[in-house]
């Protein structure tokens, strides 16, 4: 046994580090061009994004306002009056949706017949109209189909309606924090490590939302789901971009983004079949347990492992067998030995700031230290923020139309799916930069065309809203791919993560743009988005073309604006 191990050690060949890198990179290009390796990465990375479509859009079904709401006056509960009769007295001519009622002596009215009570209140109202009081002073809120929304469970209406909105805000804040932190974790500790942590957050958040009796814990669960959605999305997307050849990279990255509306369509179907909101939340939670299988089967990104000099592990992933090479040690010169000794002598005196600079914050600092990369990152931030703002403003404007919420979610998903097909065709012939600019311009013009539509032309407004959503969805997928290819491997996830953070600034701002500025003029939100999108399209011209076979690994190798697209 000992002899066989010794023989294995003797058969290991010495190879220079650069030769090892070249060997592994060449093998990655071979296995990344097709076969089981490519399809395994694709399915393990795409399926979790369907779950993102579940939970990020579930607020529309789980937290919708009740179809009808009224005030259940305690003193009238035991009368033989119908619900309509009770409301005709307590809410007569009030349009508060059951939030307020008239301050009658309801105990006195309960001893009368309905006809007598009606005549009495009408006569007294002409003499001395009573004051309007909150429903809570005389009874409690009652709802039509209260089991279909968490609004009824925690009475998130009337004066507490802002707390209903906090469920969506918690999710957006979670995505905001998650996109930043998970991006750094993925660059520092690996794509799979970040993905696994995101899966843990996703499962825990889903369970919290399904079973908690307290709204505060429900919000924590929503925050965890938001942060986990970034933890699942960006490491998985980066795995596809940096390990699959250009031939498959384009359509697989678009298909990855298209899996999100597939989740929305499935959500609408499940929501239609499962009406109680807790059962629906549980139905959305069960598939998330499959993430355990994804984490078990997924390998770490070979390209990331190469940059971290973990060659034995990369070799085993790519060749399917243990590595039989040893890295040939380099002979240090006397000057290098002297320098190493000085470094060791001063290592104990390194400040905390220096440790942070060379540790967790290294990839963030590198985003801004290089002038060329710094210019790219600021442009990317604006592009992501504007794209997200326009996406959610369009969604919120369309949601105000009187349509079934199930049909609306399905329609949104159906519109989104073909919006990912158009970029696949365009990217094949026009490259990343021209495609991105064209889609920005198309979206901007579509949104500005709303200005030419009269306020009463609902059909045309809806048509332009859906066209705007189509355009911005197509833009979103291309911008994500473009950004992933624009930055080197060692800072790619940090770039994507911080760009996503700015995207969530746009998504958090969208409700305020719609509600506050929309109150001043229904056309203002789309006009603002249209102008910003056109500016983003022009800024795209300052970025380089990235549609080449080779991705850069080091910051100094970042592509220049002068680089020209290659035919694909």
From TrEMBL:
Main location: membrane
Topology with respect to the bilayer: Multi-pass membrane protein
The keyword Membrane belongs to this UniProt entry's keyword annotation: yes
Cross-referenced Pfam families: MFS_1
GO cellular component, one term: membrane
Keyword set, alphabetical order: Membrane, Transmembrane, Transmembrane helix
Keyword Transmembrane helix in annotation: yes
Domain of life: Eukaryota
Family annotation (InterPro entries): MFS, MFS_dom, MFS_trans_sf
Name assigned to this protein: Organic cation transporter protein isoform X1
């Amino acid at each position: 046994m000992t002899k066989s191990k010794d023989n294995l050690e003797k058969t290991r060949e010495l190879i220079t580090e650069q030769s090892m890198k070249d060997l592994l990179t060449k093998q990655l290009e071979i296995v990344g061009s097709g076969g089981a390796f490519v399809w395994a990465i694709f399915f393990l990375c795409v399926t979790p994004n369907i779950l993102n479509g579940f939970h990020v859009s579930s607020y529309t079904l789980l937290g919708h306002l009740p179809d009808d709401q009224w005030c259940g006056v305690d003193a009238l509960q035991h009368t033989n009056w119908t619900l309509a009769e009770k409301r005709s007295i307590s809410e007569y001519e009030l349009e508060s949706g059951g939030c307020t009622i008239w301050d009658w002596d309801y105990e006195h009215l309960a001893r009368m017949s309905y006809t007598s009570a009606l005549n009495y209140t009408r006569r007294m109202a002409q003499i001395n109209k009573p004051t309007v009081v909150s429903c809570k002073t005389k009874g409690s809120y009652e709802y039509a189909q209260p089991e279909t929304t968490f609004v009824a469970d925690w009475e998130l209406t009337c004066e507490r309606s802002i707390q209903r909105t906090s469920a969506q805000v918690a999710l957006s804040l979670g995505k905001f924090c998650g996109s930043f932190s998970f991006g750094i974790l993925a660059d520092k500790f690996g794509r799979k490590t970040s993905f696994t942590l995101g899966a843990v957050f996703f499962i825990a958040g889903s369970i919290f939302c399904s079973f908690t009796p307290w709204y505060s814990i429900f919000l924590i669960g929503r925050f965890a789901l938001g942060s986990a959605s970034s933890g699942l999305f960006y490491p998985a997307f980066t795995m596809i971009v940096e390990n699959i050849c250009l031939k498959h990279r384009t359509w697989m990255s678009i298909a990855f983004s298209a899996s999100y509306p597939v989740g929305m369509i499935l959500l609408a179907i499940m929501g239609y079949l499962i009406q109680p909101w807790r059962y629906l939340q549980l139905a959305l939670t069960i598939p998330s347990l499959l993430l355990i299988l994804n984490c078990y089967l997924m390998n770490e990104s070979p390209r990331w492992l190469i940059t971290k000099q973990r060659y034995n592990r990369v070799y085993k992933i790519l060749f399917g067998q243990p590595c039989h090479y040893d890295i040939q040690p380099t002979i240090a010169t006397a000057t290098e030995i002297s320098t190493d000794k000085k470094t060791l002598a001063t290592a104990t005196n390194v400040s905390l700031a220096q440790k942070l600079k060379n540790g967790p914050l290294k990839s963030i600092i590198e985003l801004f230290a290089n002038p060329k990369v710094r210019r790219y990152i600021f442009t990317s931030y604006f592009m992501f923020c504007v794209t997200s703002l326009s996406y959610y403003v369009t969604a919120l404007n369309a949601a105000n139309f009187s349509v079934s919420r199930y049909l609306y979610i399905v329609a949104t998903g159906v519109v989104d799916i073909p919006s990912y097909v158009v970029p696949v065709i365009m990217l094949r012939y026009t490259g990343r930069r021209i495609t991105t600019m064209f889609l920005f311009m198309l979206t901007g013009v579509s949104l500005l065309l709303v200005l030419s539509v009269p306020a009463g032309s609902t059909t045309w407004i809806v048509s332009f809203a859906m066209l705007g959503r189509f355009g911005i969805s197509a833009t979103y997928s291309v911008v994500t791919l473009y950004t992933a290819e624009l930055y080197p491997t060692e800072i790619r996830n940090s770039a994507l993560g911080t760009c996503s953070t700015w995207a969530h600034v746009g998504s958090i701002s969208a409700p305020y743009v719609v509600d506050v500025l929309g109150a001043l003029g229904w056309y203002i939100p789309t006009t603002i988005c249209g102008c910003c999108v056109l500016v983003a399209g022009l800024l795209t011209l300052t970025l380089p073309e990235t549609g080449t076979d080779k991705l850069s690994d080091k910051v100094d190798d970042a592509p220049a604006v002068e680089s020209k697209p290659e035919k694909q």
